[in-house]
Amino acid sequence: MYHRMKLKPYTPSLTPLHVRIYPPWKKLILSGTNMFALPSMAFVGMGYLRSLDLGKGKLKSIENDSFAGMTALEFLDLSSNRLTTVRREIFEPLTRIQKIILAKNKFLYLPTTSFQGLRSLQVLDFTSNRINKIGVTWDIPSLQTLDLTSNRLFRIADAAFYGLPNLTELAISLNPINTIKNNAFIGIENLQTLTLQTLDHVGSGGGRPFRNLTHLITLDLSGSNMNPNTVFFKGLTFLKMLKLRKTSLTPSKLWNNLRNVSVLDTLVGLEYLSLSSNSLNGLIPRTFQNLTSLTRLLLEKCGIIELPVGLLKNLASLRYLYLTHNNIKVLSASHFFGLQSLGTVLFDNNAIKELEVDLFKHTPKISYVYFPHNLISVVQRGTILPTVMLDLSNNPLSCVCDLQWFLSYLDTNILILVNPNNTICSPTSIQRFIGKRLLSSRPDSHDCGPNIILLAFIPFIVLGLIFVVAVTYYYRWKINYKFFYLKLAVLGFIEFEDAREHQDFRHDLNVIYHDDDEEWVERVFQPGIDNALPEFQRIAYGDRDLVIGMFYMDAVIDLVENSFKVAFIVSNTAIRDHSFINKFHMAVDHMNEVGFEKLVLVFVEDIPDNHLPYLMRLFLSKNKPYFLWTENRDWQIFFWAKFAKLMKANKQINDTLPT
């Protein structure tokens, strides 16, 4: 039976309440009274009362024996009054009390000792007070729920809730908390739900405030300013639900580049994760790498422009994916690789322009797909579609002939089109379908007849192909030549060298020069050879080592043939000397005869191309080796290094290479 009665404020002129026998009421509502004080023995005779509502009043004080005799009371509502403190004696008669609501009063201090001895108390509500300090002594083993939302707590000290061993739900949201000590939650290891919404700052430094909450199942930090470290969530082995909505998180806060780990790596049992309303464009692909048990992921309103490939690949248990209100432009099958359990995806309000044909080839269980308010214009033939529902409303769909197959597919009733009244044909549709519902826009043979423009261009296409074939045949040799160049550039070629080394010849090197260049050879070239090629000890310089008893030209030829390398010192004086050119001619003939590039030119000065003898220009045009001497000391070091390298072997002449 419910009974509501209005009490006048108690004053000294009123006579004390006398003992009366009331009906066995179970619930009494006295909210909205004008009493400033609750009198002594106010409820004597109401021993059967289980629920008492004194909320929305003006109470400032309660007598120690106001609730005397209320041994059956289980629920007490004192919310929305003007209480600033309560004493232990007030609640001592309430031996069966289970829930006390003291919300919206004016408490500055939470008097923990006032509730000692209440062995049946399960819920204590102090929301919307002015509490800035919590008492140091709790002793309420039966308490299961404590709500301190909307107060003025700045810090949670060590062991702040010690003495509440069976507490399973704790709410401390909307407090200006900037410090949570590492042992703040010691003693409440059975806590299952912790709500810490809209805190000033949490997670900086190397703190681990949740390390004692080994049985925590739900953690809500939404609206808080977070900067978590890599061990912030360590120890939350049984955590199933984590809400981090609007927590100032960024990709760099979720991934530690120094340790190459994710802040979320320790949450291997997590099933629900909300990161919505954070700035998360550019997420590191391995951010969710250890969340193999995750079934629901929310990334709504995160400013994501490009979804990283590989971000979701380890989420084998994921069933629901929310990516609404972002700016994603492109989706591909690689984004959903490994999501074998995915059944529902929501991509509302993005900038997706098309659905790739194989977008869902890696998601065999896909059933519900929502793409409203995007930029999709067509569903290509053969696109893998969900099995139950598809939402393409408020997209600029182009109702043209290419969409016939999709309409036929919808006719099978296998797939339900969600919100069909807002699935409208765009201005790019066939004229008579613009602005109409997709399901009522059926192109027929009149709309989808043969393409006259394409038919008209067929003769031109055929003529073009004939012309291309004719031109290709006419220039086949030049084309083949160019392809040969390309083959050399890509595949390269094999070089062969003379198996003989310099020890197998009478002379290691034969140096041929004009008499006017002898001074340069003795001053520069000969010392350089000695330093660069110390192993070359048998070097013939000029005519000094010609075989005695032979004709001059025969002796020159003999020296060339029996030398491992032949070097010609070229100068302006030398190229005007017929004897020098004849020697060069004989050396080239010998080189062509043996088939190895044993000849090298050393220019002691720069000579214009049009001054060079024809045979020498022809020699150089074949990419044959030559060197130009310079007075620059750095270049001289380079000169001798290259010269020494060339002297090591004789390469076989390859006439198939282009010049």
Automatic annotation (TrEMBL):
<dbReference type="GO" id="GO:0007165">
    <property type="term" value="P:signal transduction"/>
</dbReference>
<dbReference type="InterPro" id="IPR035897">
    <property type="entry name" value="Toll_tir_struct_dom_sf"/>
</dbReference>
<keyword id="KW-1133">Transmembrane helix</keyword>
<comment type="similarity">
    <text>Belongs to the Toll-like receptor family.</text>
</comment>
<feature type="domain" description="TIR">
    <location>
        <begin position="505"/>
        <end position="647"/>
    </location>
</feature>
<comment type="similarity">
    <text>Belongs to the immunoglobulin superfamily. AMIGO family.</text>
</comment>
<dbReference type="InterPro" id="IPR001611">
    <property type="entry name" value="Leu-rich_rpt"/>
</dbReference>
<dbReference type="GO" id="GO:0007155">
    <property type="term" value="P:cell adhesion"/>
</dbReference>
<dbReference type="InterPro" id="IPR003591">
    <property type="entry name" value="Leu-rich_rpt_typical-subtyp"/>
</dbReference>
<keyword id="KW-0325">Glycoprotein</keyword>
<protein>
    <recommendedName>
        <fullName>TIR domain-containing protein</fullName>
    </recommendedName>
</protein>
<dbReference type="GO" id="GO:0016020">
    <property type="term" value="C:membrane"/>
</dbReference>
<dbReference type="InterPro" id="IPR031283">
    <property type="entry name" value="AMIGO"/>
</dbReference>
<dbReference type="Pfam" id="PF13855">
    <property type="entry name" value="LRR_8"/>
</dbReference>
<dbReference type="InterPro" id="IPR032675">
    <property type="entry name" value="LRR_dom_sf"/>
</dbReference>
<keyword id="KW-0130">Cell adhesion</keyword>
<keyword id="KW-0812">Transmembrane</keyword>
<feature type="transmembrane region" description="Helical">
    <location>
        <begin position="28"/>
        <end position="49"/>
    </location>
</feature>
<dbReference type="Pfam" id="PF00560">
    <property type="entry name" value="LRR_1"/>
</dbReference>
<keyword id="KW-0433">Leucine-rich repeat</keyword>
<dbReference type="InterPro" id="IPR000157">
    <property type="entry name" value="TIR_dom"/>
</dbReference>
<keyword id="KW-0677">Repeat</keyword>
<feature type="transmembrane region" description="Helical">
    <location>
        <begin position="452"/>
        <end position="475"/>
    </location>
</feature>
<keyword id="KW-0393">Immunoglobulin domain</keyword>
<keyword id="KW-0472">Membrane</keyword>
